[in-house]
Amino acid sequence: MEVQYNSRCIMEVIMLLESYQLEIFNNECMPGAMSVQCFAHLNQDVSEVLPFLNTELGGFTYIKDPPSVTFRLHGKLLTVHGKKIAVNALKDEAEARKIVEWMKQEINNAWEKRDKIIPRYVGMPQPQMIQILKCLPKTNCRECGEPTCMVFATRVAEGVKDSDDCPALTPTDRATLDAYMKPYATDEDGILW
Question: What predicted TM-score, i.e. pTM, was given to this entire model?
Answer without folding.
Answer: 0.69
